[in-house]
Write a structure and sequence with these properties.
By secondary structure, the protein is α/β, with parallel strands linked by helices. The protein has eleven helices and nine strands. A hairpin with a 6-residue loop joins strand 3 and strand 4. The longest helix is centred in the last third of the chain and has 21 residues.
């Protein structure tokens, strides 16, 4: 059948255009790279051992501080941004009680409390919050023969960082620099050699005279730790913490008339104030322990 002239012309033009148009060469599309797993940030385990300040108010704020180091302390290894922490405080104890192998010094930690049946407060072990416990039970097997509570605790928990938080009960002992040095050398020998550690002193008391005594004890301990080169040291009695805590009844337990009834143990609120006032010192100590 004969095409009409307009249709024939359009068909011819279309064929001519197809024959004259160069072919478009497209580069091959490379395969998509394999998807990579998200970067994993390890979770460090921190163990804090100390005295009754932990169980009478400071333990909760300490745990909160240590588990939020990513927001409070710059320059730490990534694993510490999401750290988990345990804080264990045994009443009326000092560092030398934790390093003792026998009675009477070891008894404060290992003998069952005859009045209450428990002698310690802990956070992050038996429960996330405060638990009153007796050292030596299944969750706290620190009193076996042939070892010390400090070494047993470090071996049992196997932490990535240990923090030793003491002062008040050793104030009289550490007025003597030689005794402070001897106590620290005993502790240092019992720490695993590859375990990072920080020694800190605890929250100021209410009375200025008591804090003056504690400052001398703190200076003697700090000199011993610094000379050993084994752990970092973070003083707890500083001008900033004294201004925040000392002489302020609101930082301590009081009676109905507002009189201080416990002049050495902080409340949780005052422990939080202490940590805020001492944040720079604590972060410096942590960086020294973890990045040197």
């Amino acid at each position: 059948m004969t095409l009409h002239r307009p249709l024939w012309i359009c068909a011819a033009l279309a064929l001519a255009m197809l024959s004259c148009t160069p072919a478009v060469i497209r580069a091959p599309v490379p395969p998509a790279p394999p998807s990579l797993p998200p970067q994993q940030v390890g979770t460090a385990q921190i163990l804090m051992l100390g005295d009754s300040q932990i169980s009478f108010g400071a333990g909760g704020p300490y745990i909160q501080f240590l588990q939020s180091l990513g927001q409070t302390c710059a320059g730490l290894p990534p694993a510490y941004a999401r750290a988990t922490a345990q804080a264990i405080g045994v009443r009326s104890t000092a560092l030398h009680n934790w390093t003792a192998r026998s009675a009477p010094d070891r008894d404060t930690i290992c003998e069952v409390d005859q009045t209450y049946g428990v002698n310690a407060g802990s956070y992050g072990v038996s429960s996330a919050g405060l638990s009153y416990v007796q050292i030596g039970t299944a969750d706290y097997p620190y009193c076996g023969g042939g070892t010390t509570p400090l070494k047993a605790a470090a071996d049992h928990v196997d932490p990535d960082l240990i923090i030793l938080a003491f002062l008040g009960n050793a104030t009289a002992r550490w007025q003597n620099a030689g005794v402070a040095r001897s106590d620290w050398q005993d502790a240092m020998r019992q720490l695993p050699p590859d375990l990072p550690c920080m020694v800190m002193t605890t929250i100021p008391a209410f009375a200025p005279a008591e804090n003056q005594r504690r400052r001398i004890a703190q200076d003697n301990l700090g000199a011993a730790v610094s000379a050993s080169g084994r752990c970092s040291f973070a003083p707890g009695i500083t001008p900033e913490t004294l201004q925040a805590i000392e002489g302020r009844p609101e930082n301590f337990r009081t009676d109905a008339a507002g009189n201080v009834t416990d002049a050495t143990h902080p409340t949780a609120a005052s422990a939080a104030r202490f940590l805020a006032a001492n944040q720079s010192t604590l972060c410096t100590g942590l960086r020294a322990a973890l990045t040197d």
